Amino acid sequence: MNIARSHVLISIDAGTIMAGARGVQAELVEEIKKKGLSGEVAVLETGNLGVTGMGVVLVVYPEGFYYGNVTKEDIPEFVEEQLLKGRLVKRLLLTQAPKRFIIRREKMGLTKEQPRIVLKNCGFINPESIEEYIAAGGYEAASKALTAMTPEEVIGEVKRSALAGRGGAAFPTAAKWEFARKAPGEEKFIICNADEGEPGTFKDRLILEGDPHKLLEGMLIAGYAVGASKGFIYIRGEYALSIERTEKAIADARSYGLLGNTIFDKPFGFDIEVMKGAGAYVCGEETALIESLEGHRGHPRNKPPYPVVSGLWGKPTVVNNVETLANIAEIVRNGANWFKQYGTPKCAGTKVYTILGHVATPGLIETEMGTTLRDIIYDYGGGIGDGKQFKGALVGGAAGAFLGPDMLDVQMDFVNLKEYAAALGSGAILVMNQDTSMVDMLKSVLHFFKHESCGHCAPCRLGTARLVEIVDRIADSEAKADDVDRLLAIASVMKDTSFCPLGQSLYLPVSSCLKYFREEIAGS
Amino acid sequence: MNLDELKAIREKAKKDIQLRQKEARIKIVVGMGTSGIASGAREVLRSFVDEIAGRNLVDVMVTQTGEKGFASQEPMIEVLEEGKPGVIYGNMDAEKARKVVAEHIVKGNPVLEYVIETS
To answer: Whole-prediction pTM value?
Structure first.
């Protein structure tokens, strides 16, 4: 095997493809050939490098230099200087390279770097190579679970890790698995919810694009623990690259015997299938997702019975988020105690966030649970930028909460934020500076809900329509005297009476927005 | 797939990604300025990479730098090791590179006859 002296990893994800990554990649390969460096320098595809909004992004190893906004025209200079002569092309260099580690704040204010958990391989290995995943320790956890542990022991380990669902609801993962394991029935299913619909959230997409095998391994372990032999990944139809890479990963895993009828010489079989969603927000709700998987319209079901008892085709079904399942392999491999050293006592582990809006370096980050909003914005996001002031942040997507400046130093985790009547939700952090109009923000959130309301129940169907009318009046400076109170009253009724979380969750953004910015909204 | 097969794949593929792990104990920096390249720095670099891969030295990283401003001594390389002064070698070629790996990198004895400077 020819060992290259240098690896150029080019980020191929939805954002960089739009910026012309494929063209840059072709040009790079061509130029390297022209300069006679073909055997020495390897050009490899990888997932998102933790940088967004910076055009085509490359990283050069072993030095670990990050380049951004690279165009085809830059390639001859890049190859000549960086790859041949080892000189930096400073004008393209990203000075604030994304953190390959999470920063841990020990007592006494010391900082310490720790390896990432979920994003460990993202932007580091080639997501289309099962060999690279295995070389990075992949499928070791699955082999440990299947050959040396009973399903109960696997559930016990996950339970001790206190892993909570990362989709937003933070339900204990092990409890879900246990219910499904104990539910009567021969046939059971594992569903991965990759129908990431929350505006501003794209973490699951980047996990799938950057490290699809990590998800497959998590599902395989979940299947073994629950006693399921079939898994489905329900991916948003728009996520073309996620679907492509996940399907390739499944095919590779099958050909290596990591999916199929007997795995690791055990009489346990498991297979996974990708299903495409059609981009309805409500299908992120687990029962609506199941309806959609069955081929019906994506309407939520009555609960109970919960899916763990009666889910897909009436069989016990576990529905887990992508990020949740991406934690499983590392927990099984390293043990629950290892996992619990990260995060807060009530909320273990890390959280993957997409940070966007008015920050200097938007992107994909992973931090410990309990990291404050201030650290996320100023440490990972590079600050507000343009010398502007922080005004607020919308955390958790459209169904999330607006946070004002007084929340900057609150430890962010699922449990703690609940005490402040906020939620971590899906992990999108939209940062807004002083110039942002909160009326416009609220307007776009409410329009989104009206568009996505499925029409199944009256409170949501009618409520979202009325809310949009009111917010439009406010935006047009034609508000009536009690319009602001009316917003809150309608949202409150919707919270109490809507059939599913879509209508219920709208109260949070409305109430939190009014809590911080009532004067601005009432005054416009 | 069984456990042994998994291990075999892991060992085989590991080398490929090691380069990206940056846990190098020793760094070999090859001067790749115009004069360095003209006097054969590419062959020297290639020789280092092959030798290190061949000997399975997982904690040694080879990288390149620009002109060092000492053109008459090119190709020049520098061996950097944590906690020790850097050692600069001059007038290198592929053969000398192999010797530096065998003596300096593996055994820890700098090859004094090629050394032109320490830093």
So the answer is: 0.85
